[in-house]
Design a protein that fits this description.
CATH topology of the largest domain in chain A: Rossmann fold
CATH architecture of the largest domain in chain A: 3-Layer(aba) Sandwich
Order of helices and strands of chain A: EHEHEHEHEHEEHEHEHHHHHH
CATH class of the largest domain in chain A: Alpha Beta
Oligomer: homodimer
CATH superfamily of the largest domain in chain A: NAD(P)-binding Rossmann-like Domain
Largest sheet of chain A: 6 strands, parallel
Helix content of chain A: 40-55%
Number of helices of chain A: 13
Number of domains of chain A: 2
Number of strands of chain A: 9
Largest interface: A-B, 73 and 73 residues
Strand order of the largest sheet of chain A: 3-2-1-4-5-6
Structural class of chain A: alpha/beta
Shape of chain A: elongated
Strand content of chain A: 5-15%
Distance between the termini of chain A: 54 Å
Amino acid sequence: MKIGWIGTGVMGAAMAGHLQAAGHELYIFNRTRSKAERLLRDGAHWCELPAEVSANSEIVFTIVAFPADVEEVYLGETGILSGKGPCKILVDMTTSRPSLAQRIARSAAEQGIYSLDAPVSGGDIGARDGTLAIMVGGDKAAFETVLPLFQLMGKTISYMGGAGAGQHTKMCNQILVAGTMIGTCESLLYAAKAGLDKQSVINIIGKGAASCWSINNLGPRIVRGDYEPGFLVEHFIKDMGIALQEAAAVSLSLPGLALVHQLYLAVQAQGHGRSGTQALMLALKTLNGDNGSNNP
Amino acid sequence: MKIGWIGTGVMGAAMAGHLQAAGHELYIFNRTRSKAERLLRDGAHWCELPAEVSANSEIVFTIVAFPADVEEVYLGETGILSGKGPCKILVDMTTSRPSLAQRIARSAAEQGIYSLDAPVSGGDIGARDGTLAIMVGGDKAAFETVLPLFQLMGKTISYMGGAGAGQHTKMCNQILVAGTMIGTCESLLYAAKAGLDKQSVINIIGKGAASCWSINNLGPRIVRGDYEPGFLVEHFIKDMGIALQEAAAVSLSLPGLALVHQLYLAVQAQGHGRSGTQALMLALKTLNGDNGSNNP
């Protein structure tokens, strides 16, 4: 099948690679062409504009950075929806605003095109191994058409409802992560202050009623002082910001999420926006007067 | 072995039962005698005072409700340490103040007695099945003496350091639970407002980087409107209060824990102190103007 792909960052390049490996013909656009080189070398066609991608493809996938990029890529002057061609289904896999997903779906529908919102979780490793969780909103029949392609990229694929439902589900995921991250970092900070061996604490509290992915996977990195990104602080701030805005739009107060969002803004202010989300620990340490001179 | 046991609530009765089943001779005290009936029927000896328990036993275990009860049972006029007899090791399995554990250890040491703090996690089910996690602080040799008895009650038994280290580890556990609980409840509240099927959301976000025990075990109870206690709100408030006090004593600011503690005080104020900790959802719903007329 002729498939369009816009956004070939770490995630996008790996995901598109699975479609290419399965024999699909890719039409690609990315802001930085060099990041698409490997796919191009393996036979993908380069396009100069998003509109050129949709003019050549039956289904177009997108995974870019921020909602503003999604808006530009879909609704901009030379965006996907300005292209005339065989394209019948659009799939945005960026984590983006549910309300924007609904707007794109309406605009697409006016041209007889279906649009799905299908954000993922599982990070660069999930993208590379084809084991992502994919949460999908939009037309059910369009979802079923795309399902075999989703199955090349992910392991858990869930249809969640109409346009925006995929993005809303991803917001639920990120709200939960906000809680597990603050719990993980405050717990390990307390452990350090109490003079406990932090890894021994993780070994025991990571098994019972307190257990979570964050303590078991990011906890050991914090213990080692490893703040390399699995998932970027600045992307998590974007996601929490979307969730808070969407919640505010329906007068929903989420005090825990709001607090964690504020603390991550402090992480960013302290220069760690491109670190992994476990860098929340650094902001909590600074808050508590530790400016890195020792390593509790 | 002649073993003393003080505190035969749901947890204590089940745990003492494992020692009795292994052939140990129990000397029991509890504020409410009726709760010890089953152990007494199976051959345990009733004592009128904590001092009588320690006067008859080689090792005394305690698991009561609040730090004030621990203080009374150990240091009160007719407390354990006032009893003269063969008792050589004391083990408090209540979740209590690390600083109190240290004080009891010092008082016991003056009489040549070892004292361990050994709080547990795993709840009533873990107590019944003998699968508790037990976090132990105090003298290492005393720990090794008691270890075979701990193994009758628990599955994961960890020596964490000197007096108070067991309690500090339990605090780390509860700080983490505070995070997973606020994440779980806010996530499901958002899901409801967004019109998503909450169980479908749990099914997908409970598997990846957001996954935690709370969403997978308490999430479905929230979806069913089941607020029966696995772990009581009022006990969790006690635990968080201890953690906040201990943290404040070393000038440690834990903003996430402080917020969740406040929200649980609201849960209690709304009459749910004897509900399970998943009742945090009820306070968040009330905060958002839902007084139970509908069930998002």
